[in-house]
Write a structure and sequence with these properties.
By secondary structure, the chain is mostly helical. The chain is built from 16 helices and no strands.
Length: 328
Amino acid sequence: MPASVSAVPDLSGLIELSRDPALDLKPVILRVQTDMFVAAPNRDRAMIHAFESLAAGLIPTVDEATAGIVADKLGGCPDLPEAVRAALRARGLDVAPPRPAPDQAEADRQLAENPGVLIGLRALERLLARARRDADLARILLARPDIPAADLAPLWLHADTEARRAIGEAVEATAALRPCPAAPRALASALVERSHARDVPGFLATLGEGLGLPQDYLSAAPDPASRYDLLTLALRAADLREGEAVFVFLTLNDAVARSVDRVFSLVTLFRETSRAGARDLLVAILGAPVLERAGTTEHRPFHGPETAKPRAAAALRPALPSRLRRTN
């Protein structure tokens, strides 16, 4: 429920006391009302109008110290009525202009950088979606010890070796629980042919179409080096043999082929990742389904009640030679 004048505590007792000539409670009332106005999370028209009427009337009557305190408290308040600002200006006091509201990206970064705040599920989903494209935010989230490794799978490409290993183990623990459809039969052969011909665009298009990846799937990699890590996961999900994957590493890109260490690291990643684990990592990294286009045929049990039963095939019997009728 938005804060309004109806939610303000009853100050009629203070108002009555303020009429006592021996007591001057106007500074107290003004400071209390200012605190409540500034602290209100939402201010409706009634609340703004009530504060304007009270503060604009009291500011000319209070002492300099109280007026200065009120001006400081109202600095940056976005809903400050113009009449209140003018009353303070008449006393030689300027109020700081409203502070611009932080955009969602800055608010997310402040949330991620605050180790004392637990990140809720919805907020974490929003942060991970932004961190896929924001390397700095990804590093902040990967450094938080309170986020489980499995939840950090979307940031696998941004992670260092140790974090990748922890994320991979967490993903592998559940990857086999979900069926992994078979890749198209001719996909591996087509990829090897494209790599042998050094047809990089054709290779990427064939791989993306075969696994049902988004058209811009390579843009998920934060840098050129991590693109091959992403491609290695895709090759594993495409069910290539290790020899076929090594052939791709040695022929598709000369810069990769000339680095023994790089080829060895890619082969190690290929060996240590199961096909289902590679599929699940791709799903997390891309935020999109993988292998959904392959195997779209609905499975229908042969003995299901709705399944049309095939007719029993007629027994095959050798054709007997026809007898010739004897004629005399």
